[in-house]
Amino acid sequence: MRSETSPPALSVTAPLDTAIAVQLAARGRWSPFEILFWLGAISTIWLLPDHHLILTEIVIWGLFALSLDLILGYAGIVSLGHAAFFGVGAYTAGLLARHALIGEPVVALLVAGLAGGAFGFLTSFLVLRGTDLTRLMVTLGVALLLREVANRMAWLTGGADGLQGITMQPVLGLFRFDLYGHTAYVYSLVVLFVLFLLARRIVGSPFGLSLLAIKGNPLRAGAIGIGAGPRIVAVYTLAAVYAAIAGALLTQTTAFTSLESLSFDRSADALLVLIIGGTGHLYGGLIGAVVFRFAQDWLSAATPQYWQFWIGLILVVIVLVGRDRIGGWLAPLRRAGDRLVPWRGGRDGGRP
Asked: What transmembrane ranges does the database entry give (predicted)?
């Protein structure tokens, strides 16, 4: 029987709970660089009206790389078949529009995300066990198998010719897609921002911190009561939803999709984008998409035959120099930003 003079249990845990709440609140605050990043992205709607087509591609690539970063940067799951979810979303959106099953693009986007999430949930159990090499082979095999199924079902997917005859209705019944990509860019940018806010909230939560613990040491995480299995299934399913929405965006903004959306090259390019931008801080996929797509566009115009050589050279330089050293060069800018915003405390996993 507990003595009347013994302190309540809350008095012991309250300081710890308060400290955790303060840390989580600090991680959720926006840095000056984040604010400037999104202000710059929004300003391109008016400042770069002639480049909305390529900017739409960058947004879609950024969202796709962000989905891969959720499992690679935070859960440590290496995947070479992430394009499988991208393709599921792309074909779902295309089939819904072609057969007039769901005409409104936003609703179709949500349905495509759910389809990708369902497929991600079913395949997530394949990556629970095994080493990184096993996961690489399993994810690659799933993507190749799905691509071959889509190729064989030409009556449904169009096969090698792609899914044609897609007609997109106006967004929310108000905004029609135009040839210059203005509506497509604004639509894609809004979707990216909303999903980024959700991902930022998730990775800054206790769930996101538990993913980092699993990535760092799964055995130690399990020893302190952090179950790896359910969390890996959850984040893998979430990443599949994000990738499927990216694929659906590509179909809706181009009114076309093909087997390329399921190809190995698309998965490999997403990894290249993350290598350029960095993993584990969400902005890596966005920044990497900007650098990769503009570098690809400029180099292919300057040296059409050798542009891949220069892309490879950029990757080699990043590996040789080291991301930590590059981060050290940018440290003075970060400290200057911290001094400009006195209320900013702590660092957030979702910051650039």
From this structure: 30-48, 60-86, 106-128, 184-203, 223-250, 271-295, 307-326
